[in-house]
Amino acid sequence: MAVSSRFAAVAWRGVEYSPDAFGDLVARAAGGLARLGLSAGDRVALVVRNCVEGLVADQAVRRIGAYPVAVNWHGAQDEILFVLGDAKVRLALAHQDLWPSGADVPFISIPLTEGETGPDGQLASWAELLAGPRYEGPRGSAETIIYTSGTTGRPKGVRKLSATAGQRARARAMRDLLYGIRDGARVLVVAPLYHAAPLQMAQHTIERGELLVLHERFDAQRFLAAVEEHSITHTFLVPTMFARVLGLPAAVRNAHDVSSLEFVLHAGAPCPPALKHRVIEEWGAIVHEYYGSTELGPVSFATPEDWTAHPGTVGRPLPGVEVAFLDPESGLPGGAQPAELAVSTTAFGDFTYEGLPERRAELQAGDFVSTGDVGYLEDGYLYLSDRIRDLIISGGVNIYPAEVEAVIQELPGVADCAVFGVTDDDLGEVVAALVEPVAVAPVDPAELERHLSARLGRLKRPRVIEFCDSLPREPNGKVRKRLLRAEFEERMKQQVQDD
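^ Acyl-CoA synthetase, sequence as received from the core. Prediction below:
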């Protein structure tokens, strides 16, 4: 299918921008950027919540061949300042209340409300950027620079290198499959656009010329209302969003007609099998899943039928994607499974890390790129065991947290959990667990202990179990295990001192 060059209609805060109106905003914003001296190869930071201006800016920056840098505005000010410096940003577009003090980058403020004035130090206002003539120069092809979530240290900026025409065509075909977007689709995006999956779904909708409905943030009841109001056919969610929708009272859920939904996609974080079964029961066989990374792009894809027949799979490798498993001794393909997964893909161009080419080189494993994920293939379907960095080694035994998490989640009184290793003088590490109980009928701690004793060997059973109202997560749904591990170890150290 040929990809439309016209722009989508974009619905934002009750206003629907026609394809021509949205395209004109992009051309005028691109013209404004060019007048400010921006050109191909420059970096422009977007420190903005989900909004139509952010979508326009992303398109306009890429139109002139510059790189948009999507900034996680949920981060602390020093984290935002780090990204601005690391990416060598020449200009930023920002919501004024998100702009960090002490930043020395010139910026354009995007007002939160109409008529609002920007802070001191701004280079121009959003209205001034749009005030001049349209950009009529050559169309650029740069992709947005996405910063990883930084779960093992400072985030790394992932920049895609130039793709060939063939790679761009294969990437478009792959995105057609992943997002399922067809002619006449009506797409709702509620996840933050500084993450790769929701951003690319929005970009793909725009490139295809379909309707894109954008929300500033996710709200479960508002999500259901929007599906009904706009007859939404396609959307992207993360597992925590599934849980929040299903956590609404049945009367609230049933008050909204969501029968228009035909394709729901999730990615970014593992979905507990019990939760996914409930979503499929609620909405039908429309829940699709893909596995991939910011660096490599999509790797595998699972239809509802795939997952129902092979529970727990993340699908089959996509066309043009080859997977291998690394030998722990040589670091090259050929290891016994499960082992660290490595990927080779022809659908996307190569990538690098901003300012860290040596970190990119470390990932090369022959013709493959290591992912840091542990997995295995069974009957052609890919399964993930865990992350290499999350592996717990207790008394010389390898323990995969995902295995322990799956056992804990078997109990109906468990809403979610996180398992990780904490330092132990005797065994090196021991297993710890943080459990989020179901609010209505929480799991009984004694029942949980009995269940774990019956299902897991001694070393795999959590030495420490704590309960919480909700797990700390990144906006993409990933649990912040590094934070949990540090907090647990600090509390355990304090207990020893108190004793």
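DSSP finds 15 helices and 27 strands in the chain.
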